[in-house]
Amino acid sequence: MPLYIHLSIHFIVALLSGYLIGSFFKKKKIGIIFGILGGFLIDLDHVIEYFLVFGIRFNLLYFFESRQFLISDKIRLVFHAWEYVPVLLLLAYFLRKWKNVKVALITLAFAGAIHLVSDIFINGYYFRYYSIIYRYRQEFLAPNLLSSSAYQANLNYKEELGI
Ligand SMILES: [Zn+2]
Prior knowledge:
Elements: H1 3-24, H2 28-39, H3 45-54, H4 60-64, H5 67-72, H6 84-94, H7 99-123, H8 132-137, H9 142-145, H10 148-161
This protein binds zinc ion.
Zinc ion (ZN) binds near residues 43, 80, 115 and 119.
């Protein structure tokens, strides 16, 4: 699936998640902002991954080729994790006195979880792949995390790019 379609799906679903939670709590604006943050801008961890591998020299082509993952052979993706969902919901509970904060945190959790579910369907990864504890235990190594066919596809892609 082309990246722009993948991202469009995330954007629309994020907007919808935010709108739903926002409407439920009668805080539409907060819902939409944090829906987009949790459900769309969550993918900014791909950018973090890039800087971890390449430093501050940014090359848009490399980024769109996902070279950072190919070169490091690691998948950290610090924002993609189920673990944040209960943490955010607990925080929302403790900070419930501030309604805006509560709605923001619940929306982040909801939109983030929906994003991960969409990623599982779109990318065909396992549920456990989106646990950061699981990835940490696998030392974030792509060969441990990906199915053998997905990893082989990575190797083929690397060869194609000549890296
Ligand atoms: Zn994602």
